[in-house]
């Protein structure tokens, strides 16, 4: 079950909502591939086919888009056999993202170290907004 994350900048008061994690539909490879844009889909498919045993992790993670200045959730497909990952593009503008939330740091840790894409202050707060599937 996925998690809805509300992100707010304490400084400029801008707010975003991200649908992070994954849902039941993402148990099928074709649904995982559909989460990626045409530009990234082949890379994701190659990563899925790289292992004889399906050893991968898929989830949407919060990230900053420096181009459209938003916080968005992007699809991330991580190989368990290697450190290779396929990171999706911004769903709003289609550009590469920056400041991706890693699983190790968690959303709370990520929001404390990440600059607001609008005002550039390090005043982001992340809170739970519910669940999705």
Q: What topology does this entry show?
A:
Blueprint: E1 2-9, E2 15-20, H1 29-34, H2 38-49, E3 56-65, E4 70-79, E5 85-87, H3 106-113, E6 124-132
Antiparallel strand pairs: 1-2, 1-6, 3-4, 4-5
At a glance:
The protein is of the alpha+beta class and 133 residues long. It has helices spanning 29-34, 38-49, 106-113, and strands at 2-9, 15-20, 56-65, 70-79, 85-87, 124-132. A hairpin with a 4-residue loop joins strand 3 and strand 4 (70-79).
Walk me through the structure.
- The protein is of the alpha+beta class and 133 residues long.
- Helix content is 20%, strand content 35%.
- It is built from 3 helices and 6 strands; from the N terminus they run E-E-H-H-E-E-E-H-E.
- The chain has helices at residues 29-34, 38-49, 106-113, and strands at 2-9, 15-20, 56-65, 70-79, 85-87, 124-132.
- The strands form 2 sheets. It has a 3-stranded antiparallel β-sheet, covered by helices on one side.
- The radius of gyration is 15 Å and the shape is globular.
- The N and C termini lie close together (5 Å).
- The model has no long low-confidence stretch (mean pLDDT 93).
Number of helices: 3
Helix coverage percent: 10-25%
Distance between the first and last residues' Cα: 5 Å
Strand share of the residues? 25-35%
Poorly predicted sequence stretches spanning 5 or more consecutive residues: none
Would you report the number of β strands? 6
Report Rg: 15 Å
Q: Which H/E pattern describes the elements?
A: EEHHEEEHE
How is the main sheet built? 3 strands, antiparallel
Mean of all residue-level pLDDT scores: 93
* Structural class computed from helices and strand pairing: alpha+beta
Q: What is the overall silhouette? A: globular
Strand order of the largest sheet: 2-1-6
């Amino acid at each position: 079950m996925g998690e809805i994350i509300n992100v707010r900048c304490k400084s400029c008061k801008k707010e975003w909502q991200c649908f992070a994690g994954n849902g039941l539909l993402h148990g099928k490879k074709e649904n995982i591939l559909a989460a990626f844009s045409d530009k990234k889909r082949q890379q994701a498919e190659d990563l899925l086919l790289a292992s004889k045993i399906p050893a991968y992790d898929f989830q949407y993670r919060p990230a900053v888009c420096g181009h459209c200045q938003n916080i968005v959730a992007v699809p991330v497909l991580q190989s368990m056999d290697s450190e290779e990952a396929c990171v999706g593009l911004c769903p709003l503008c289609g550009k590469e993202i920056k400041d991706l939330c890693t699983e190790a740091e968690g959303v709370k840790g990520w929001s404390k170290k990440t600059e607001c894409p609008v005002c550039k202050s390090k005043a982001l707060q992340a809170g739970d907004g519910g669940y999705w599937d």
